[in-house]
Design a protein that fits this description.
Layout: H1 6-23, H2 25-41, H3 47-58, H4 62-67, H5 77-89, H6 91-94, H7 103-139, E1 144-149, E2 152-158, H8 159-184, H9 203-209, H10 219-224, H11 227-253, E3 261-262, H12 281-304, H13 320-342, E4 345-346, H14 348-355, H15 362-373, H16 377-393, H17 399-411, H18 419-425, H19 428-433, H20 443-483
Antiparallel strand pairs: 1-2, 3-4
Length: 485
């Protein structure tokens, strides 16, 4: 029996054993069963031995294994479980289970089995967020407010228009996660150490029993590659970066100075000393947890960067807990935001009253002058800018007079508009209503876009349901076929 150095045990092996018990025991056991069914089906293991091994596997309590302490007498969880199998059916029979496989392909298969679950969980959280946003959008197609560019008040739009922008980003995140799932959901089992095996194994059978869409192909790449992992981490990182920007807006808008949005009491805290405070700390936690997850995603890339393209520990025991933590924290952050947005309230009257402040609608005046008088837009832009400057110098004079004076030289003569007409042109609601461009803020356009996003959400949710159902069906099939041995 190998005697590992106490420092190696304390700093590495014990930590890895605990991590594996927590995250990898269930997939390891599923792999044992699936490989056994395949060996029996291919005649590589006799029916009697297959029955004995299956009974030995059945005798292992996962709960008991998770409660076991690492004692340094085995290298890792794989050897710990193998020792239990040997104790149950004898070394000669138990040893036949490891025919035509290696810890290498077992490890890579376990990692993919867990990662596909994490990708589905993260996708589900984003779907809940989209659902909460679409509910808000349905109530705020006509809620006008001023948005910012370069951190400065810019133009009026609607709450629905703003939220749809983020929903569409989440839709692209869903596509990235779906692609990452499909490329993760391939089975490396059968690649063995790195060059496959001479035994007549059936890799498609183990793929079916474990819920994979099919086997990986090149056996070297099955063990060496980590691009499937990096793709999933990248999809999560893109999602987190977008989520963080959205959360930052919401935190700014929930300040007393903005007062655009208010969150429910279940997502705020008071101060231990200032009773008037209403702190949106749940959203702050979402920002912090999301940033933590983004850092973990970057650490995953750093850990595998410039490592050899082959079997290497850098992509295995020490990396996988980081992958789990990244997905866990990413999912936590999204779930918090989704729940908080259900309680979000926007004061429509107050938002619209402030939406026109600071000449936010001046672009529409320039557009109107260009349309009505066939002016170059730059000329119309200059007239609008002169009007704004004149109004600041003469706040009490009628706006129509100031426009006539501002336009006389640039337009070849004064442009005549009544004050009521200018009030309409410069109103935030008119500004929004005329912007019926595809993807624009006009209520009829945001209603169309919301309907399209609702259909896309239903399709994405159905994809996840099918994926989860396929995994569940594979587990039932594996249980039935292993029980029949």
């Amino acid at each position: 029996m190998t005697q590992f150095a106490p420092e190696y045990v304390d700093c590495v092996l014990n930590e890895n054993f605990e991590d594996a018990k927590s995250q990898l025991l269930s997939p390891l056991m599923a792999i044992h069963y699936a490989h056994l069914v395949m060996l029996a089906a291919q005649g590589i293991v006799s029916p009697g031995d297959a029955h004995a091994i299956r009974a030995a596997l059945d005798s292992i309590s996962q709960e008991a294994v998770r409660g076991a302490s690492y004692d340094g007498t085995c290298e890792d969880l794989f050897f710990y479980v193998e020792r239990l199998i040997v104790a149950a059916c004898g070394e000669d029979i138990a040893g036949r289970l490891h025919t035509a496989r290696s810890r290498n392909d077992i490890d890579m298969t376990m990692y993919r089995m867990r990662q596909r679950e994490w990708v589905l969980d993260l996708a589900a959280a984003t779907f809940r967020l989209r659902r909460s946003l679409l509910d808000l959008i349905g109530r705020h197609h006509d809620t006008i407010f001023a948005v910012h560019t370069h951190t400065q008040r810019a133009q009026p739009t609607t709450v629905a228009h703003y939220l749809l922008a983020f929903v569409e980003q989440l839709e692209r995140d869903a596509a990235r996660l779906q692609g990452a799932y499909e490329r993760t959901n391939r089975n490396p089992l059968g690649a063995c150490a790195i060059t496959g095996t001479g035994f007549p194994i059936d890799r498609q059978l183990t793929s079916t029993l474990l819920g994979f869409s099919g086997p990986t192909v090149n056996t070297y790449g099955s063990i060496a590659t980590v691009d499937y992992l990096l793709e999933s981490a990248s999809a999560a990182a893109v999602l987190l970066a977008g989520l963080g920007r959205f959360v930052q807006d919401l935190l700014l808008w929930s300040t007393a100075e903005f007062h655009y949005v208010r969150f429910g009491d279940g997502f705020v805290q008071s101060s231990s000393i200032m009773p008037q405070k209403r702190n949106p700390v749940a959203m702050e936690h979402a920002r912090a947890i999301g940033s933590k997850a983004l850092g973990q995603a970057q650490a995953i890339f750093t850990s595998v960067h410039n490592t050899p393209f082959g079997d290497i520990v850098d992509t295995e025991d020490d990396l996988q807990p980081l992958v789990f933590s990244m997905f866990r924290d990413a999912t936590r952050a999204v779930r918090i935001v989704a729940a908080a947005m259900v309680t979000a309230e926007f004061d429509a009257a107050k938002l619209e009253a402030r939406a026109g402040e600071g000449w936010t609608t001046l672009t529409e005046l320039a557009d109107t002058l260009a349309r009505d008088h066939n002016l170059p837009f730059r000329t119309a832009h200059s007239i609008a800018a002169r009007l704004m400057a004149a109004r600041e110098r003469h706040p009490d004079r009628p706006l129509g007079e100031l426009l006539a004076e501002a336009s006389a030289a640039l337009a070849g003569g004064p442009l005549e508009y009544s004050d009521p007409a200018l009030a309409t042109i410069l109103s935030p609601r008119h500004f929004v209503n005329v912007r019926r461009t595809l993807g624009g803020p006009a209520p009829e356009e945001t209603a169309r876009a919301a309907q399209a996003s609702s259909r896309q959400l239903e399709a994405d949710e159905e994809w996840r349901r099918r994926a989860a159902a396929a995994l569940a069906q594979a587990a039932r099939t594996l249980a039935a076929q292993s029980a029949a041995l």
